[in-house]
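Following up on my earlier thread - several people asked me to post the actual chain instead of describing it. Fair enough. Here it is, all 316 residues.
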Amino acid sequence: MKMNPAPSPSASAFSVFSKKNAPLVDALMENFFTEKISGADHPFIRDMYAVLSEYSTRDGKRIRPLLLLASYEGYKKGVKRRSEITKLACAVELMHSFLLIQDDIIDRSALRRGGKSLHVVLDEMFYGKTHNKSIGSDLGIVLADVLFANAMQLISSAGIGPREKDEFVRIFSRTYEMTAWGQILDIAHSREKRPDLSGDWPLVISELKTAHYTIYYPLVMGYVLSGRRDGGEISAIREFSLPLGIAFQLRDDILGTFGSEKQIGKSADSDLSEGKMTLLVKYTLDFLEGSERKKFLSLFTSKSKAKSDISGMRSM
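Reply from S.P.:
Thanks for posting it. Predicted structure:
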């Protein structure tokens, strides 16, 4: 009988941890939005919170809150105040939804996590009610700000010591400042007429938008919440997490080019059609030569791309 290879112990352990803890994060978020909906002062606010609830609680990996919780449990001697730490993990997940809303508006993406992007949902809700053709994007930008306020409310309500909370807020603010700079660089280096191929922008963007935001900072958040402050240990977390974050981004680049819409929950053509200078594109240009390289670059930098253009770039 042919047997599948056993998963690595670390992968198996994290899978078990995820199955146990992701539902706790989801339940807390659902309860939070239920309270927001029931306590809304106006029917419009209630309806908007219902939209935010549906969007934020869609199926997802919950990788950031899970890494925070795993780090906290790993460093803490005995798990105390677990429900309060889960509130902070939920704040991190709400910030992820905040960033996804922005990302989809910037990238003009119609799909997210197997459903319609928030700005598309809002476009359809208000279709025919206004002359504003950008109503979905306009509302989405501000509703993302509501999620930011919700995240801060969760942090404020968490019953943890002031020392741990102050340190958490410091790292929390640093996380999203650095992510914003990564997003700004990503926008500046997308849809370029003449890409700067000499620099390492794709790597810098991947570190800021993914490695720091997805792996490093959630692990550091969990570490400081455990009450520890060893700079050497934080350096060790960084040394471990940044290469893992780059690998995470490379996998995302590959799925974003070769994966199916079902796999990634959004269009598999988006990175190439948007002219995103990902690591995968940068490495492709590094390896291609002569006329083939010139052809790829011409297709990549064109303002509009046909399906055949995307297919051609994908094959190269």
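The longest helix spans residues 9-38. That should answer part of your original question.
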